[in-house]
Give the backbone structure.
Amino acid sequence: MISFERICIEVHEVSPAELHHWIAEDLIRPRGTPDAYQFDDIDVARIRLIKTLRDELEISETALPTVLSLLDQLYEMRRHMRSLNAALENTVPADIRATLLKYIEDSHQ
Amino acid sequence: MADDLYKILGVAKTATADEIRSAYRKLAKKHHPDLNPGNKAAEDKFKSISAANELLSDPAKRARYDAGEIDETGAERAPQRSYRDYADGPAGQRYRANGAHGGFGGENFEDLFSSMFSGRAANPNAPARGQDAQYVLTINFLDAINGATNRLTLPDGQTLDVKIPPGTEQDAKLRLRGRGAPGRNGGPAGDALIEINIKPHEFYQRDGQDIRLELPITLTEAVLSGTELRLRGRGVPAAGSRPAGDLYVKLRVLIGTPDAALEDFLRGWKPEPTANPRAAMEAAP
């Protein structure tokens, strides 16, 4: 858990104004209240990601929400896939899992 | 080994700092691992281009690298945990797609999932038809025109004899009933659907029901005959209600190596003036 002030020191070249802007835009969603935000590791990693997207990959501030929204959808799908995997792993007998796997492999050919 | 970092970025050893920067950005856009989650190849590629850029964009390190004082891993640092390490796990819930910027339009995954099985899960012992199997069969031009039987080898090693009717067209789909996946609980087997791909012929070309052939001939032959011949009924054979097509042979004049006599003739040749063949077109407004 990291404070707002700490972020601006820890993540190289992030200004408080910039960070406030991203929070207002809902691109970064820290816990806590505006006078005492609490950032978790994922928030810090996401701030770094936004900086990389903008500064190194030249994605403009106006395009950022769209790009992040697409990424969020992608990661959400991946989390669902993982939970589906876990559900299959824990509830479906091995022989049926093998059948499912074979079906998926065949349909990719 | 000294060339490797330059090769990774696809720039010359003499590249300027700007060229290196722009080459790196171009590659980074494509291979950034947070944009390609789960793609190991992209991740490795990104690591190598990042490492190459990090070293080459530092003039002091680049000079030492060029001088062979440090190798291409000379600047490698401990990797920072990246966004996807968190986003792939439960922490990723913080940035659910159905937040402020849209997402799946209210359709949640559980709905999506239950709709996949609705109706089917009701009775797992009910007879169910097997899946259709899709194949692509490449055949040669003349087999497609005249019809043939081709043997298709399936991924499991079995073979399937496919009867190709005369006049089969590119992308035609043939259905072999009952040759797909077996049914469950006594249900019928699925069908094999075979998509036909026709290899082009060296000389013949198909044009609907007609066949075209380009045939090189000499000047003399051209003077004494026309430039296109039609062999009625010798194209694609009749099938069902479609009549047979024609074979069109286009004659292409080949002069051969000009000899002195031909050159002399052409120099001295004064063709009779002919009426302007485009007169009617030019007179039109």
Summary: Chain A touches chain B through 31 residues (CB under 8 Å). The first helix of chain A runs from residue 4 to 10. Residues 53 and 59 of chain A are 6 Å apart (CA to CA). The radius of gyration of chain A is 20 Å.
